[in-house]
Prior knowledge:
This protein is α/β, with parallel strands linked by helices and 169 residues long. The chain contains 7 helices and 5 strands. The protein has a 5-stranded parallel sheet with strand order 2-3-1-4-5. The structure holds shikimate-3-phosphate. Shikimate-3-phosphate is lined by residues 10, 14-15, 33, 44, 78-80, 117-119.
Amino acid sequence: MTNIVLIGFMGAGKTAVAKKLAHALGQKLVSIDEQIVEQEGRSINEIFSTQGEKYFRSIEKQIVSQISHGDGLVIDCGGGTVLDAENMAHLKRNGTVIYLKASAKTIFHRTKNAHHRPLLNVQDPQAKIEELLSLRGPFYQQADLVINTDEKTEKDVVQEILKALEKNS
Length: 169
Ligand code: S3P
């Protein structure tokens, strides 16, 4: 059974949607960020501040290569996971990759009160979101399926994914 892989920018709703989707499908949920935190025994903020983003990305890559051998999983990626071409290739090999798309405005509103994302702990998070979103757009668009999440509840998004998966099966 192929995996279902959720990608998209921070705040697009990947984690919440992945949980609900895994539950609806009776499939096992795997969060790449959670695996990194578990393996390292520290938060993502701590990893970034002590060893930097490059180190974080190397652990992220290790985890992706391990879990992409799994079967029938719902995989919740970090926002930057698919910037690495090998990560994308691993995830696509046995997975339907779904891009949860959101506008910069939506992302800003969804992320402004959370402080666990080092890349957005900057003076002007709105500008940072716009900058990163335009750089990352082409990577996210490599997904098999794109779902717009603006002005939708998590439940709406899950329903939309389930419908799309049914149609493609
Ligand atoms: C990142 C997104 C985060 C986490 C890390 C880096 C990114 O995951 O992996 O802070 O580069 O966009 P979420 O998208 O789940 O917040």
